[in-house]
Design brief:
- There is one protein chain.
- The protein has 245 residues and is α/β, with parallel strands linked by helices.
- The protein has ten helices and six strands; from the N terminus they run E-H-E-H-E-E-H-H-E-H-H-H-H-H-H-E.
- Helix 1 (17-28) packs parallel to helix 3 (72-83) and helix 4 packs antiparallel against helix 5.
- The protein is globular, with a radius of gyration of 19 Å.
């Protein structure tokens, strides 16, 4: 088997923040790739054929020829390692800026992603209404946005003076804060300006349509609102778990 890159890219993904992350890199690098939509509501990601690509049974996953890469951050790094030879969206390995970029990337992987993911679950998808769960994870999500604000109130980008995979990864989650969690992004003006800079990029606008679900963003927001209303309707019922703290 020859060494990568193989230039035979297939992205297995769904319309989630983690699913958006590798699509941003693929579109920014203007790479040719195939898309295999995964219906996570039908548990496509738990089928044997998908588990052979990602044993964790989560989207996204990537194949490049016979090579598999799973976990969104690993996919982003693979794509920049193999295909971003001019370092447009990364920095030279071993440099201070490379590790600054990696720090912000891992900040998203270990912080914003898990915490905001839990906030989304309790706010819109939980089978009970949990005042404690919603408050705990929403407060932590906002705290992490505040960490981004410390940097972005003084700089255009998270690492150095250019847009990198660290920005792409964090953007994918932060953009979902207002519709899912009713976060007022104006409370974080540096973050708000950063979001607008990223959203104006043509590659970002293309990536946000991967995969093509046939639904507009307005329809998705309406669906999320309905999910939140369902959770709210559980208040005062036998499925209400208010905080006793």
């Amino acid at each position: 088997m020859s060494s990568p890159p193989y230039n035979a890219l297939t992205l297995y993904t769904a319309g989630t923040p983690n699913g958006l992350k590798p699509a941003l890199v693929l579109e920014e690098l203007d790479l040719k790739y195939d898309v295999k939509p995964i219906n996570i509501m039908n548990n496509d990601q738990k089928q044997d054929w998908f588990l052979a690509i990602n044993p964790n049974g989560r989207i996204p996953a990537l194949k490049d020829g016979d090579l598999r890469v799973f976990e969104s951050g690993a996919i982003m790094l693979y794509l920049t390692d193999m295909y971003d030879r001019d370092k447009k969206f990364t920095y030279e390995y071993g440099t201070a800026l490379y590790y600054e970029m990696m720090s912000w990337l891992m900040f998203q992987m270990g912080g914003i992603g898990p915490m905001q993911g839990q906030a989304n679950h309790f706010r819109a998808f939980a089978p009970v209404y949990s005042a404690y769960g919603i408050k705990r994870y929403l407060d932590e999500t906002k705290r992490l946005y505040g960490v981004l604000e410390i940097r972005l109130s003084k700089a255009d980008w998270l690492a150095g003076d250019k847009y990198t995979v660290a920005d792409m990864a964090n953007y994918s989650w932060v953009r979902a804060g207002p519709p899912f969690l009713d976060i007022d992004i104006a409370e974080f003006p540096g973050v708000e300006r950063w979001l607008k800079r990223i959203e104006e990029r043509p590659a970002v606008q293309r990536a946000r349509k991967v995969p093509d679900t046939g639904r507009s963003e307005e329809e998705m927001i309406k669906m999320v609102q309905g999910a939140k209303e369902r959770v709210d309707s559980l208040k005062g019922t036998g499925k209400d778990e208010p905080s006793k703290i």
